Amino acid sequence: MSTSDDIERQTVVTSNEIKGEPKQCQLAASEHDEENLLPVVDDVPFPVWLLAFVGAAERFVWYGATSPLPENYIQHTPSSKIPGVLGLREATATNIVNAMMAGGYLATIPAAVVADTWLGRYRTILVSALIQLCGSAILFATSFPRAVQAGAAEGGLAIAIMLIALGSGGVRSSVAPFIAEQYTETTPKVKMLKNGRKVITDRELTIQYIYNVYYWTVNIGGLSALITTVLEKYVGYWVAYLVPLCMMAVSLVPLLAWRHTFVRHPPSGSVLPQASRALVYGIREGFQMDAAKPQKQQEKHQRQVPWTDTFIDELKSGLLACRVLYASPALDIDSNAWTTDMIPSSSLLFPIHWLCLNQTFNNLISQAGQMVNSGVPNDTIKSLNPISSILLTPVVSRGLYPFLTRRRIPFGPMARILVGFLFLTLAMVYTAILQKLVYSTGPCYDQPLACPESDHGHIPNQISMFLQTPIYILGAIAEIFCFTTGTEFAYNQAPKTMKSVVQSVWMATAGVGACLAMVFTPITKDPYLVIMYSSLAGVMVLTTVLFGIFFGKHDRRKTLLL
């Protein structure tokens, strides 16, 4: 038992839905307490805020570096209406940015393997941050006018993109599980508010709250796009890229200054090879992971294996997370048979979600460039996404979720993801309609900035860029429900020794989505953009329906992959 001083130190509780400060607490809760007291969020440890800052800095660099890239730095020439550098046209610019996004998200997988097997999460974050810092420095150095004139821009951009993507993947794959590991309480505690009401802390709600905090700070980092695009337009690209470089350097301070504050778990060493071997054994037995358990292997194959039954059960839990994130077929734990609603196309549901959401990084910026911007840089408009997220995340985490908790209304992870999919579907439908309106408006109609009336690309179609606002608001709501839930779900379902790997599987869905975006390259140009956005809207409708069919029941009954 803790001393009275220990108890006194634990009297602050984050209880968003209940007024009144905690008065006292006891460390253990009885079954009666768990059944009858209202669950609340526990104290958030200080290292959580430090890592949230590191995550925000990584996003600051990512968005700050990529925001001027696609439709300005890469697409336009210095003499264009929207000044650029390389002049490689929209389709090429879109492909380069999609490749960078794919690389950044897919790099999470090897980085996660390194974190879980050799370096550990803290060292992986530190090394990855240094790699990203080097990439930012190269991008800054090669964006000077003299460097551009000397022909260093293209080569510098290629190297910078690779380093930033690699570093970003390493930071993201480890920060997400590492931030949740800083909360070490595993047993519920009873706390009494000053108004005399007893409440009970809940680990699941606390982890959910931590990831909402993480998402909120990440979106503050996303505001760098607003800063860099303004600097790009009114000062120059080198100044725009100096800001994220400085921010990345600052992010190293908490990692180094408070390095002894973080809760660290040693890397697992041989766990991943063992997991791979166990998975092979399970596949050989007809996709039955229980067949890989020691007793089964000894009875059937007279084979001794170095793992335990608990290891296999944890591995199954991690595979369940991977199944949901990639929407693979399910096996009902009761019937022990493959469900009848399985089709191969189900394996791309979450990547399709990212395919649609990632339009804000490239094609929607181009769409804004075809519209009247009223003096606001066209690539500034996408800052409405993080701004909306910053404003709406507290509404959801401090308003909606506590409201549902007070009334004992279940709103599990699959339901939250489904709601996010619905909002993203609405965003894509609206985008297709808006593109049709752009093509229906002069002077150039379905050839914006390309007709003689555009004065050599200086007069856009006469429709306001700010009509894009609902797209970014709807997309932000979709992210609030999907991103935070996916991150939380990946952490909760992953085995303790494979947190980074399962988290990287979740992150990699965005990389797969970026790869899918390249399929649309042939129609990523005028006058085919209505077709492209309509296709994405239709695919998102199908994705939402399929996800509801496959996983709508997961919050109510237990299903397993194997």
Automatic annotation (TrEMBL):
One GO molecular-function entry: transmembrane transporter activity
GO biological process: oligopeptide transport
Pfam families to which the protein is assigned, alphabetical: PTR2
Residue spans crossing the bilayer: 122-141, 213-231, 237-258, 414-433, 471-492, 504-524, 530-552
Keyword Transport carried by entry: yes
Primary localization class, coarse: membrane
Lipid bilayer topology: Multi-pass membrane protein
Superkingdom per UniProt: Eukaryota
Cellular compartment(s): Membrane
Keywords from the UniProt entry: Membrane, Transmembrane, Transmembrane helix, Transport
GO cellular component terms listed in the entry, alphabetical order: membrane
PROSITE patterns per record: PTR2_1 (PS01022), PTR2_2 (PS01023)
KW Cytoplasm (keyword) present: no
Similarity comment: Belongs to the major facilitator superfamily. Proton-dependent oligopeptide transporter (POT/PTR) (TC 2.A.17) family.
Name under which the protein is recorded: Oligopeptide transporter
Lineage: Eukaryota, Fungi, Dikarya, Ascomycota, Pezizomycotina
